TrEMBL record:
<keyword id="KW-1003">Cell membrane</keyword>
<dbReference type="InterPro" id="IPR047641">
    <property type="entry name" value="ABC_transpr_MalK/UgpC-like"/>
</dbReference>
<keyword id="KW-0472">Membrane</keyword>
<dbReference type="InterPro" id="IPR013611">
    <property type="entry name" value="Transp-assoc_OB_typ2"/>
</dbReference>
<dbReference type="GO" id="GO:0055052">
    <property type="term" value="C:ATP-binding cassette (ABC) transporter complex, substrate-binding subunit-containing"/>
</dbReference>
<dbReference type="Pfam" id="PF08402">
    <property type="entry name" value="TOBE_2"/>
</dbReference>
<dbReference type="GO" id="GO:0016887">
    <property type="term" value="F:ATP hydrolysis activity"/>
</dbReference>
<dbReference type="InterPro" id="IPR027417">
    <property type="entry name" value="P-loop_NTPase"/>
</dbReference>
<protein>
    <submittedName>
        <fullName>sn-glycerol-3-phosphate import ATP-binding protein UgpC</fullName>
        <ecNumber>3.6.3.20</ecNumber>
    </submittedName>
</protein>
<dbReference type="GO" id="GO:0015408">
    <property type="term" value="F:ABC-type ferric iron transporter activity"/>
</dbReference>
<comment type="similarity">
    <text>Belongs to the ABC transporter superfamily.</text>
</comment>
<dbReference type="InterPro" id="IPR003593">
    <property type="entry name" value="AAA+_ATPase"/>
</dbReference>
<keyword id="KW-0547">Nucleotide-binding</keyword>
<keyword id="KW-0378">Hydrolase</keyword>
<dbReference type="Pfam" id="PF00005">
    <property type="entry name" value="ABC_tran"/>
</dbReference>
<keyword id="KW-0067">ATP-binding</keyword>
<dbReference type="InterPro" id="IPR008995">
    <property type="entry name" value="Mo/tungstate-bd_C_term_dom"/>
</dbReference>
Length: 361
């Protein structure tokens, strides 16, 4: 396994890029530690696949270097990087048995038969496919085919990194949770460096110890699932992660405070800077209904059983959501007053977090 370092990495598909808008990847500096479980998360077109292809060697970056354990591999082809990759669609041989599919990457490298047999048995047990080892792959269900594809990526114990490129795309929704759990379990057992690429926040947050959130070719935040939820570094992260996403309200800055519709909104701490676009961010989970607070007309109520999501519209047209637990729910059209938990209320300048938590050094 390997520590992966991306140093001053940029990439453009144009022969002579002139400005930042010409780059599919803006400058990226990242360190992924040996044995870590990481996710690359972002919408389509944000640069995830470009970055994955650069790490795997399918693309040479326009600028910057890629290091595996300090060794520069920027110009090395894929077969010299010692990488295993699992794709969106199962990559297996239908005419082979499950056993033969799992053994194939090892046989290609001349591994001793006894080690192949032991390794295939170990991976089959992890994936819970031991009973189907002698079945032809053609007759397997889609989720079992993808399990075998994952097994082919995991069977080698000498790879630098295992990369998963949206591996659950073709899996039925009711089976996805099983494979997500299995992947997490596999990582804990094999302790390999793993990178999981997805646009699905649930997949990223349940698999990874550290999530790299990307937007428009840039890394906007790296953190644990808890850090991304509780303290988004950018309003995009607040919108993208969470269901519903973070409330973002336009505001004015004066006298050291943030004002929405002329009302001072207490923040988590002091404002460190302001910008041309100033906003307040608050998760719906930290909005409550009370007798005082910001007034709004209820637009819709979604009762989910274990909780309810109430969306109200303030006088200026801003929509504000609240996640409520128990109690009577307001009716559509009713006027409610929304109170924000100050310690969870962030200030953002031009999209970026610009308020300090109380007690921060």
């Amino acid at each position: 396994m390997a520590k992966i370092t991306l140093s001053q990495l940029r990439h453009s598909y144009m022969p002579a890029p002139k400005g930042p808008e010409d780059y599919a990847l803006k400058q990226i500096d990242l360190d992924w530690q040996d044995g870590g479980a990481y996710a690359l998360l972002g919408p389509s077109g944000c640069g995830k696949s470009t970055l994955l292809n650069i790490i795997s060697g399918l693309l040479v970056p326009s600028e910057g270097r890629i290091l595996f354990d300090g060794r520069d591999v920027t110009d090395l082809p894929p077969d010299q990087r010692n990488i295993a990759q699992v794709f969106q669609f199962p990559v297996i041989y239908d005419t082979m048995t499950v056993r033969e599919n799992l053994a194939f990457p090892l046989k290609n490298r001349g591994v001793a038969p006894a080690h192949i047999e032991a390794r295939v048995a170990e991976i089959a047990e992890m994936l819970e496919v031991t009973e189907m080892l002698d079945q032809r792959a053609a007759g397997l269900s889609p989720d079992n085919k993808q399990k075998i594809s994952m097994g082919r990526g995991l069977v080698r114990d000498d790879v630098n990194v295992v990369m998963f490129d949206e591996p659950l795309t073709v899996i039925d929704p009711h089976l996805k949770w099983k494979l997500r759990s299995k992947l997490k379990e596999l990582h804990q057992r094999v302790n390999a460096t793993m990178i999981y690429v997805t646009h699905d926040q649930t997949e990223a947050l349940t698999f990874a110890d550290q999530v790299v959130v990307m937007q428009l070719g840039e890394v906007v935040q790296i953190g644990t699932p808890v850090e991304l939820f509780e303290r988004p570094a950018h309003t995009f992260v607040g919108h993208f992660i969470g269901s519903p996403g973070m409330n973002v309200l336009p505001c004015e800055v004066r006298d050291g405070g943030a004002f929405f519709m002329g009302r001072n909104v207490p923040l988590e701490g002091s404002i460190t800077q302001s910008g041309t676009r100033n906003e307040i961010g608050i998760r719906p989970e930290f909005v409550t209904l009370s007798e005082s607070g910001i007034p709004g007309a209820v637009r819709k109520v979604a009762d989910l059983g274990h909780n309810a999501v109430v969306e109200a519209v303030a006088a200026d047209g801003t929509r504000i959501s609240a996640v409520l637990h128990g109690g009577d729910l307001p009716a559509q059209g009713e006027t409610v007053h929304m109170q924000f938990a100050p310690e969870q209320t962030r200030f953002y300048a031009d999209g970026w977090l610009a308020s300090e938590a109380r007690g921060a050094a």
